[in-house]
Amino acid sequence: MFKPRNVDAFREAFAKTGCYRTPPEALGKPRKNGLLTSLSFNLRALLLGSMYHGARYAKKGIFDNNRWAECGFHLFWETERLGTEVILEGFNNLRGAGPVVIVSNHMSLYETFVFPPLTLAYGDAAVVLKESLLRVPFLGRTFATRKVIPVGRKDPRADLKQVLDEGERFLREEKTSVILYPQGTRQPFFDVHHFNTLGVKLAVNAGVPIVPVAGQTTFLGVGRYTKDFGPVDTSVPVRFACGPVIPVTKATSKAAHAQCIDFIASKLEEWGKIPVKR
Is 33 exposed, middle or buried (CB count within 10 Å of its CB: 0-12, 13-18, 19+)? Predict the structure, then answer.
């Protein structure tokens, strides 16, 4: 059943503190990993919950930021129902920062739905995502109504131009932050050498700061037959940590990029669940 908790109350409290940790009374009995648990989350929570209801709202023309928060945070509640903690920290760094470029590591479809609503508590955001996601049933209809920058991943030069041009337009003209995943494809580890400089390039071009975010979402793995629906691992908490707002210029772009990488890698190493390849 799609029965989100009081999303407005959650967003209000989160906007004030920038942090959250699953309260003991909201944590369900831990579920064993396996086919039934994975099917339960993928079908009940992801497909028939967030994705279906997001598409339904989009069809009615009412999939706004509040509805996105409702559908995104529904995955948090379903994660907690399976006995897995959700831990968020540092997002108060975004308060008053204005439009920024937000860069993060990328592990699964999980953060595609839940990560942007966290930033929406502090201002509007556009998301760079794979063009193919716009053709996924339910999901495509949903994201087509939001501020997105689709990339094909076949022509790197065309993708670079698309992100820089559209990203700068969002940042400068619409005063909208841009979220992107510089490592490209989803991976259950963090390889610092594949975390490209697209984020700092966009920030320099638009004259805005950059903000790193570390995410631990191997709770939902990458599927064998389809990347979007994978095995669930209830033993690993879902975590997001927002780093500092980093001013960046052409002269400081290398240092800013290194600072973003170091924040994400250090957080993942601190949590001790995700391999980091330095």
Answer: middle
